[in-house]
User: Fold these one by one.
Assistant:
Number 1:
Amino acid sequence: MTAIISMVLIGAGTLFFLAGTIGLLRFPDLHCQLHALTKADGLGLTLIGLGAALLAGSAGDVARIALICAFAALSGATCGHLIARHARRGNSEARDV
Amino acid sequence: MSDALLLFDLLLALAVVAIAAAALLVRDAFAMIVLFVVFGLLSALAWVRLAAPDVALAEAAIGTGLTGALLLKTLHHLRARGMAGWQPGAVAQRPVPRAVAWLNAGLALAVMAGLGVAILGSPLRVTGLEIAVAEAMPLSGVENPVTAVLLNFRAYDTLMEVVVLLSAVIVVWQIERGAGPAPAPSLGPVWQGFARLTLPAAALVGVYVLWAGAEAPGGAFQGGAMLAAIGLMMLLTGLYRPHPDHRGLARLLFVLGTVAFAATALLVAGGGRASFEYPPSYAKTLILLIEALVTISIAVTLTALFHGREPVALKGDLRHDP
C-alpha cells in the first residue's frame, strides 16, 4: 500500500517536472518561463520527496529528505526571484539610458 | 528492476556524452558554461551509479559548483573588458589553420588510442588493491577506505594536490592585482532572508562533511568547497571586501594546510617509521587535524581564486572592472 502511494506521489512529481520543462521550452518570455519552472520544480521535488520519504527506512532519512526539499524550495524560489529581478533591472536601465 | 536501472544508466551515459558534445560545439560562451555545469552534475550522478559517492561529492562541489562559478566570473571579467572574443556575431575571427586542426585531431586520437589500449589491455575481473586496503584498514585510524587511501596510504599524492591549489593562488596573485570591482549592489530583501537561513546551514554542512569523512563519504576537499561557497557568497554580495591589510592573514591561511600536512608527515618519521607513516594509535587524530587545516586552506584559497586578484591599493589604477 505504501509503495503504491509513494509511486503515485513520485509519478505526480515527475509530471510537474515535465510540465515545468514544457513551460520552459514553450512560454514566450523569461518571466513566464520562470513562473513555470519555479512552481513546477518546487512542487515536483516536494512530491518526489514525499514519495521517497514513504519508502525511507529510518527517521534520519526522512529528516534528510525534508531538509533537501526545504533547501531546494528555498533556493529555487530565491534564484527565480533574483533572475527576474536582474532581468527587470537590466530592461529598465536599458530604457532609461 | 535491474532492466529499468540499466535503461537509466544507458540514458545517463548518452546524456553525458551528448551534453559534452554540445558544450564543445555551442558558440556562445555563456551557454558553454551552463552546459559544462549540467555536464558536471550528470557526471556526479554517474559517479553515484558507479558506487563512488566520494568522487560524486567532489565532482558536484568542486568540479561543477566552484569551477562553474570561476568560469562565469572569468566570462564576466572578459566581457567587462570587451575581451570576450567568443560572442555570437564576433565569432568570425581568424580561422584556425588547417594544419593546427589536423595536428590537434591527431594528438587527441593518439590519447584516445592510448586510453583504449590501457583499458582493453588491463586484466579483467581481478581485484585491484581492495584486499590490501581492506587488510590495512585497522592501521589507518579511519573507517572510510577512501579517506584512508587519500590521507594515509597515499597521503603524498594528496599533499601534492594541496600544493597544486597553493601554486594556483600564488600565480593568480602574481598576474592580477588591484582593488577589484565595486561592491555589488544589494540583491534585495529576499536574498538577504535566504542568506540568513542558508549560509549558517552551509557552514554546518561543510564542517559535517569534513568530520564525516572519517567514516563516510566526505572529506577535506568536499568540505572545503562547501565552505568556499560561503566565501563566494560573501564576496558577491560585498559582505566581505578584500582589503590590502588582510593579505598577511590570507597568505598564512593559504599555506596553513600544506605546512601542517608536510610538517606532520615529517614529524611522524623517525623511530623506524617513514614519513607519512602515522602511528596507528594517533592516526585518526592526526588525519582529522590535517584534514581540518587543509579544509580551511582549501576554502580560503578557492575564495581567493574566485576573487581573482591580489587586493593591492594601486594608485590611479584603471585596470579593474568598471
Number 2:
Amino acid sequence: MSTSGTLIEVSDMSHGYTMAGERMTILKNLSFTIDFGEFVAIIGPSGSGKSTLMNMLGCLDVSDTGSYLLDGQEIRKLSDNKLAAIRNEKIGFIFQSFNLLPKLSAVENVELPLVYRGISHRQRRQLAEDALTKVGLGDRMHHRPAELSGGQQQRVAIARAMAGSPPILLADEPTGALDTRTGKEVMGMIRQLNEQGHTIILITHDLEIAEQANRIIRIQDGNLVEDRRKA
Amino acid sequence: MKLFQSMRMALKSIYSSKVRSLLTMLGIIIGVSSVIILVSVGQGTTSQITEQLNGLGTNQLTVNITGRGATTSLTYDEALALGDIPGVKDVAPVISGNVTAKHNTDNVSVSVEGITPSYEDVKDFHVQSGRFLLDIDTQYRQKVALIGSSTANDLFGTDSPVGQTVQLNGISYKIVGLLETKGSSLGGSNDDKILIPISTAERQLQSKGVRSITIATTSADTVATVKSRLEGILAAKFSNATNAYTVFDSQQMLDTVNSTTNTLSMALAGIAGISLLVGGIGIMNIMIVSVNERTREIGVRKAIGAKKLDILAQFMIESVVLSGLGGIIGVGIGVGGSWLLGHYSPLSVSIAWNMVLVSFLFSLLIGVVFGMMPANKAARLRPIHALRVD
C-alpha cells in the first residue's frame, strides 16, 4: 500500500433508485479525487445524495454507472465478498449512532473487524487495547456500550475504525448524536487522527463541523456544486 | 479460531436471553427425553419378556387343544404316544380346570392341573419341600397334590403345607409337596395352582381329554422337524380341522413378541420424534425473530467486513448450539428419567444408549436444517438496508 498520491478516484458516478415505479436519480455524474492524508468534508442538506455517496465510497453499495477506483482498484466489478474484504481492510466506519454491538465489551467491539480479518486472538487483543488506549479509554476496556456515555461510545467506535489501521476513516455525522462539548472532543480526536496520517472523509450537513476539514465538497440534488480547499 | 469465537458468541447470545432460549429448547428437550424414555422402557419390556420366554426353554413345543370339529380331544394315551416322534425327549400332557380349594375355613378358587411326573423336567418346575408326583400316583389314581407357593400361603399361612390335607370341590387330597416360587410367566401365575396326578384329574374335573401337552425335544435344533411331524399327526387325528388345536414353539412366540414390541416402541419413538420436529420449527421461529431483531447488528458486522459465510456461520452455529444444548438437556432428562423409572416403578427399563446417541445427533441435525433458512436470510441482508433499520 502506497501512502501518497491518489487514494480515491471517482469518475462519472451516477446512481438512482426506482421507488414506487418512479426512477429517482440520486447521484449525477460525480467526479472527484481524494489523495492520501486528506481531510475532506462532504456536505449537503438531507436528500442531497450525500448518504448514497457515502455508501458508494464506503463500498457498502456500488453505483449504477461510472467508475470508483479505491487505491487503484475498481470497486464496481467486485463481488459482495470481495467488497466485504475491502471494507474490512481499507475503511474504518464511524457512524452517527455509534453502531456498537450492545452485548460485547468495548475491547470486543474494537476487536470485531480484526476477527473478520482472521487475526489471531492474542494479536487482535493487543491491537484493540492499543487503539482504546489511544482514544483515552484504557480504563474502560471491559465496559459494555450501555455502561459508557455517548462520547465514550463514539470513542470506542473510533477505536474500532482505526484498530486495523485502514487508510480511510469514513465518518458519517460523527457528532450528530452528541452534545456540543463531546462533539468538539470527538472532532478533535478525528483531526488528530488526520494529523497522524489517516485519510478522513467526513459526511455532515453541519457547515460548522465541515469547516474543520481541509477541503469541503458540497453536494446538492446529486450534483457536486462546490469543491473548496482551505489554504 | 473463528469457529471457536462464533461458538462463544452464540453461547453468549443464548445466555443473554435465558428464558426465551429455554422455551425454544423445550420442544427439543421434550422430544429427545421422551424418545429416550419410551425406547428404554420398550427395550426393557422386550428383554424382560424374552427372558421369561427363554425361561420356558427354547427346545419346547406346546400343543393346546381348543376342541372344535368332530373330534374334540386327545386322550391321555394318544398324548403319550406323541413321545414316539423322533427327536422328542419327553411329553408332559396336562388336563386343567378350576376348583375351590378348602382347608379348615379358608376357601380359595384355584386352577388345578392334572399332570404326569414328566412335568417336572419338561417345565423345569420343582418342589421346594416334600416330593414331586410319582408314576405310582398316576397309576393308582392317588389323591395327592402339589401346591403352589401363593396358594399354600393363602390356605396355610406360614405353616408347612406338606402332609396336610386340602379339599378340592369337597374331595380330600393329601399335599405331598410344596412347589418352588416361580413368579408369573405368559401363562399367568405359576404359584397360584395345585397339581394332581393326571388320572386323578380326569375324574376330579370329569374331563377325558388332555387340554395341553408340553413337549421337550432333545435339542433346540430338532424343534422344527418335531413340530412338522407333530402337526401331521394332529391333522390326521382331528381330520384336518386345524382350528381344533394350536402348536407353538417358544422361539416362534419370541419372534412374535419381539416384532410386536419393536413395532410398538418404534411407533412411540416416532410420535416422540414428531415432537422433535415441532421443536425444530420452534427453533426456526425464534431464529427468524432473532435475525429480524438483529438486522442492525448484521449490518454493522457486514459494514466492518463480515462476509456472507461469516454471518451464515454465526446464525447456523447459534441455531445448532441452541438445539444441541436442548439435546444435551434432553439426554440428561431422558437418561435420568429412565433410571428413575427403572428404580422406582414396576416397569423394567434398559437405557437405550444407541437411541441416546441417535436422538442427540438428530437434535443437532434439526438445528442445521431449521437454522438454514433464517441464517441464509441473515447472510443475504444487504448492509445498506440492514444499517438503516433501527
